[in-house]
Design goal:
about 120 residues, alpha/beta, 5-stranded parallel β-sheet, globular
């Protein structure tokens, strides 16, 4: 089963994503901030990371930078989720995708399936 790491501090969004993505056939790992996300990466290798931008302890941008600096995690597709419109300008970023919150389920699953073509 293909694993997705969801890094999100809003419990309602975590529960929603977990339910939705598990119904689509994915195994979900959850972290509530970037530090927890890094710990999850050390214990298992997900096929994709879905991360919120604004979180306590370590935000999504810093999590992405640390993943890019580590050869073990650099190749894992990283999707940034944010309600902050300025963060959604993907022109200057190297994220695999940026998803606006609130997101449409079809858009989210299309993004996931594009980045994990053979789940």
């Amino acid at each position: 089963m293909t694993t997705i790491l969801v890094v999100e501090d809003d419990i309602a969004i975590v529960d929603f994503l977990r339910t939705f993505l598990e119904e689509e056939g994915y195994k979900i790992m959850v972290a509530h901030n970037g530090e927890e996300g890094l710990a999850c990466l050390a214990s298992a290798r997900p096929a994709l990371v879905l991360s919120d931008l604004m979180m306590p302890v370590l935000n999504g941008q810093e999590l992405y930078k640390r993943m890019q600096a580590d050869p073990r995690y650099k190749s894992i597709p990283f999707v940034l989720m944010s309600a902050v419109r300025t963060a959604l300008n993907q022109k200057d970023s190297h994220y695999a995708a940026v998803v606006a919150k609130p997101f449409e389920l079809n858009d989210l699953i299309d993004t996931v399936e594009r980045l994990i073509p053979n789940k």
